[in-house]
Amino acid sequence: MIPRNNDEIQKLRQSGLISAQALKATVEMVKPGVNLLEIERVATEIIEKAGAKSAFKSVPGYSWTTCLTVNNEVVHGIPRDFVLKEGDLLSIDLGAQFAGWNTDCAWSVIAGGQTTKFLQAGEESMWAGVKQAKAGNRVGDIGQAMQEVVEAKNGFKVVRSLVGHGIGKQLHEDPEVPGFGHKGAGMMLKSGMSLAIEAIYTETTTEVVDSVDGWTLISADGSLGGMFEMTVIVGENGPEVLTDWRKI
C-alpha cells in the first residue's frame, strides 16, 4: 500500500466521520423490539444525507448499507425482517464512501444494554490492535496484540478465515490484517497507510460456515460471534482513528 497524501487523508477523515455518525446512531438504536430493517434504513439515510454512498454497496451482488449479524452469526449478515429480543447480541458493520474514499467500522452490542466479558474482550482486542498501528511496526504486531487479548487473556477464539484489511479507493485492499499472528512478522507499516482493524471472534471456535442465504457466515459450533472494527491512519507515534463513534 502506498501511504496516503494530505488531500487523501482529509477525504478519509470526512468518510470516517460519516461512518462514525451512522454507527453511533445505529448502535444507540439497539434494544428489544427494534427491527433490523429499521437499523438498515437509518444507516442508509445518515450516509446519503451526508453526501456519501454506502461502501458496502460497492461489493458485487450486495445491496445493503449494513451487515447485521445476530448471536451465532459472525459476519456479513443481511438486513432482514427480524425483531431483536432481550439478550440478543447484534453486530453492526457499515461503511461510507466519500469522494471516492472508503471507511469501515463495526460494533457489537446486546439488546437490553448488558455488558459481558465476551463483548469487553472483543473491544479490548480491537483497541490493542489499533494501538500497534504506528510507523515501523509490522502487521504481525497488530495480530499478536489482538490474539493475546481474545485467546490468552479471555479464553475466546479468533476466527482464522476472516481478517482486517487495507482500505482506501477500494473497500478491501492489501495488506490483510489478521486478528492473530506473531510480533515482528508481515508488512512493515508506514505513516499514512489506511487500515481497517477488525476483531472477529467467537466464544469457542476458530471456524465459520456458510448459511443458506449465501452471505452470512455463522460460527461452526453455534457459539456467539462478535465483531469490533475501526478504520485508522498509521502515524509516526501512533494511529489516528477515523471512525470512533464514541467521540462524536
Any low-confidence stretches, pLDDT <50, length ≥5?
A: none
- Structure class: alpha+beta
According to DSSP, the number of beta strands is 13
What is the name of the CATH topology? Creatine Amidinohydrolase
CATH class: Alpha Beta
Overall, the morphology is globular
Mean pLDDT: 97
Proportion of residues in β-strands: 25-35%
The level of helicity is 25-40%
The number of helical segments is 4
Largest sheet report: 6 strands, antiparallel
Encode the helix/strand succession as letters: HHEEEEEHHEEEEEEEE
Radius of gyration: 17 Å
Description:
This protein is of the alpha+beta class and 248 residues long. 27% of the residues lie in helices and 27% in strands. It contains four helices and 13 strands. It has helices at residues 6-27, 36-49, 117-131, 139-153; strands at 53-54, 66-70, 73-75, 89-98, 101-110, 157-158, 164-166, 173-177, 194-202, 208-210, 217-219, 225-233, 240-241. Strands 6, 7, 8, 9, 12 and 13 form a six-stranded antiparallel sheet that branches. Strands 1, 2, 4 and 5 form a four-stranded antiparallel sheet that branches. Helix 1 (6-27) runs antiparallel to helix 2 (36-49) and helix 3 runs antiparallel to helix 4. It is globular.
